[in-house]
Write the structure tokens for this entry.
Amino acid sequence: MKNRATWTLADAQAAALRIRASRTATKRETTDHLVVTLPRLLPGMNGKDGLIRQHFRNATRVKEELLVWAKGLRLPTFGESRVTVVCARHYCGNPMDFDNAASSFKHLLDALVKAGVIKDDGPKTIEAMTFRQVGCRSKKEQCMTVEIKSLSLVAEETALQLF
């Protein structure tokens, strides 16, 4: 980068354009409810491709693929809102132990955080997280879904159920 003392008029005009463009950049759409479906299954902790045995380069590759996938969807954001998350693993065959099923969502949730959908995957942002396993008939139907709801929407739905 040039020292400001050596800027030409063209350099100054280009810098001014970049500053104006960043100030007028469109903000992302916000939402109260979102369902994201990954059309494949990610490994749990155990097994030959499990997170325990996975080489760090393979883990990095999977994380990068998921981040590119999540950013490509151009998902809306929840901003600073607290949320509840329901993770469902649709499988055929035998179900996983629940601790393995829960761990299989780690890279997916991290990608959603890095893509800016939710602020963080810690307890300050996520009020409650539920994991489900749902049987399906064929391997073509196998997928992972993450349903995210803002706490305000959950409170509304709960209030409506009470009356």
Notes: The longest strand covers residues 126-135. Residues 28-162 form a domain with the 60s Ribosomal Protein L30; Chain: A; fold (CATH 3.30.1330.70).
